[in-house]
Each structure stands twice: as C-alpha cells, then as structure tokens.
Automatic annotation (TrEMBL):
It comes from the Bacteria. This is Nuclear transport factor 2 family protein. It holds the Pfam family SnoaL_2. SUPFAM superfamilies: NTF2-like. It comes from Actinomycetospora termitidis. Residues 7-107 form the SnoaL-like domain.
C-alpha cells in the first residue's frame, strides 16, 4: 500500500520548512511526540523545530500500514536535518502515525530515532 496523500504532503511541507503546510496535514488538536522536544501539539512543535533548523530534506524509504487498522502507518525515512547554525545532523527515523478515519489528516505522530549522535549539537542551538 502506498503512503496516504496526507503523508506525502507532510514530507513535502517538512522539506519546505513550512509551518502552515505542515499544520494543514494535522487535525486541530494534532499531537507530536519527539525524543528531543517531548510531547507537544503540532502547532507548538513545528515552529520550534523550524526555528532550530536550516533547510533540510527527507528521503522516504518505506511505508508500513497496519493490516488490521489502515489509520496506523509508519514512515521510515532518512532526514538530512541541518541545524540553524549549519551543523548537519542527519539520521534515519521512523514516524509512527495515527490518521483520521478517512486518512486525510494526522491525529498523532510519534518520532522514533537515536538522538545520542546529535543531542549535544541540538542543545547548542535549541530555542
């Protein structure tokens, strides 16, 4: 099964660093769980992320859909993240995503990756 359209739009908005475009992918009460930023509303998380970032890009590797619940999707991708000070901090990541019943919006996104190699660089520039 291919990625739902909302997830393709989400990755494109993440690449563009566009808060409005990313938030358009979420429900009004959408939530993000991040190993660096903690649990925040999407409306709080993405402005903080983009403030700490220079232009970055994603490279989608795989999409996994729960065969018993198509609202539950995992995106495996490489995030060529660059911090605001220009420090490259690339990593491989899996986003565990819960979609609305119609699969048009993101309800919850849990980000899973190893922060050890980049935590000290992030702490230096984090707003």
């Amino acid at each position: 099964m291919s990625a739902p359209a909302v997830l393709r739009r989400y990755l494109a908005a993440l690449d563009a660093g566009s808060v409005p475009d990313v938030l358009a992918c979420f429900t009004a009460d959408g939530e993000v769980v991040s190993p660096l930023y903690g649990t925040r509303s999407a409306a709080e998380f993405y402005p903080a992320l983009f403030a700490d970032s220079a232009p970055s890009r994603t490279e989608l590797d795989r999409v996994y859909t729960d065969p018993d619940d198509p609202r539950e999707v995992a995106l495996a991708f490489h995030y060529a993240w660059t911090l605001a000070d220009g420090t490259p901090t690339p990593f491989d990541v899996v986003d565990l995503v819960t979609l609305t019943d119609d699969r048009q919006r993101i309800v919850r996104l849990r980000i899973c990756y190893d922060t050890a190699p980049l935590r000290s660089s992030w702490q230096r520039v984090s707003s």
